Amino acid sequence: MESIAKKEKEQRVRWKRFLNYQSIVKQMPFFLFLAGLAVVYIYNGHQADKLNRGIARTTKELKELQYEYKTIKGDVLFRSKQSELVKAVAPLNLKELTAPPIILTDSSQIND
Fold it and tell me: 38, 43, 49, 104: which has the fewest Cβ within 10 Å?
C-alpha cells in the first residue's frame, strides 16, 4: 500500500516539475512557434477562401459575357440578312439595286 501511495506521489511530483515557472519559460520558444504556425494556417485558409470567391465571381462574369456575345452575334446575323437590310434603309428612301453596277474606267489609261 505504501508503494502505491509513493508512486502516486511521484506522479504528482513529475507533473509539478513540468508545470513550474522555469520549465514553462524554457518551452516558451516552442509555444511561440506553435502560435506562429496557427496564425499562418489561419491566414492561409482565409487567402484560399478569398481566391475561391474570386474564381467563382470571374467564372460567373465570363458566362454572362459569353451569353451576351451569343445574343449580340445572333442579332447581328439576323439584321444582316438582305430582307432586314431593306427594311432598315426604307425610311431613308434607299432601294435595292435591280441593275448590275456600272464599272468606271479611266480612259487615259486605256490608250497607253
Answer: 104
Could you give the angle at the alpha carbon of 22 between the alpha carbons of 24 and 3, nearest 5°?
90
Q: What is the largest CA-CA distance in the chain?
A: 136
82: which residues sit within 8 A by CB, 6+ positions away? 96
Q: Tell whether pTM > 0.70.
A: no
Mean pLDDT rounded to a whole number for the chain: 87
The answer to whether the CB of 87 falls within 8 A of the CB of 78 is no
Give the pLDDT of residue 69.
98
Place of cell 454572362: 64
Nearest alpha-carbon partner for 8 in 19, 23, 22, 16: 16
Average pLDDT over residues 25-38: 94
CA angle (81, 72, 89) in 5-degree steps: 35
Nearest-angstrom CA–CA distance, 20 and 102: 108
